[in-house]
Amino acid sequence: MNLESRNPSDFPVDVILYPGHDKAIRQVLSELAQKCPATFILLAGVSGQPIAYEGEKGGTNLSALGALLAGDLAASQEMARQTDQYQSYQLILREGKQSTIFLSEAGPYMILFARVDREVPLGWARMLIVETCRQLADIASARPDELTSLELGLHDENLSSLIGDKLDSIWSG
């Protein structure tokens, strides 16, 4: 790949967030932790800089984890591009002994890491994580004065719609 021919604006940079963004982000992460349920969530910039977390982090070094997530996501994105499989909001899934780990793009500037118990159905967790990532991307791209007009959260009526849409897509192909 010839990097000299790429425009510098093609390379990802971290997002700039204001206090209103932080409040909206924390609301969305809190709802994901409750509804999924997720035991630990980390939101980081594409460079790996931690933005926010929810749940029990234990002895986890958030900066080190963020850097590892950024490298992992960048490698996975490039593999997808090389094999012509890239799409927005891709998910990386790792199953462990007690928990499952999801890693996803949250728009072009952020990465979402979520750890859920093994008992949580993968499809349920995936659906909520992807929707949360879409909302996080909307938050990051909104001006501070636009945040109040965003429809945020994993409310029961929104979840009903999401589930219905997913079931409809199964039958319609």
Write a brief caption for the model.
The chain has 173 residues and is of the alpha+beta class.
Question: Can you lay out the helices and strands and say which pair or pack?
Answer:
Elements (H helix, E strand, L loop, with lengths): L18 H17 L2 E8 L4 E6 L6 H21 L8 E5 L3 E7 L4 E8 L4 H20 L14 H17 L1
Antiparallel strand pairs: 1-2, 1-5, 3-4, 4-5
Helix pairs in contact: 1-3
Relevant terms:
single chain; 173 residues; alpha+beta; Beta-Lactamase; 5-stranded antiparallel β-sheet; 20% strand; globular; disordered N terminus
Tally of extended strands? 5
Mean pLDDT: 85
CATH class annotation: Alpha Beta
What class do helices, strands and sheet pairing give?
alpha+beta
Percent of residues in helices: 40-55%
- The end-to-end distance, rounded to whole angstroms, is 36 Å
The strand order across the widest sheet is 2-1-5-4-3
Poorly predicted regions are 1-9
CATH topology (fold) name? Beta-Lactamase
Give Rg in angstroms. Answer: 16 Å
- CATH-level-2 architecture: 2-Layer Sandwich
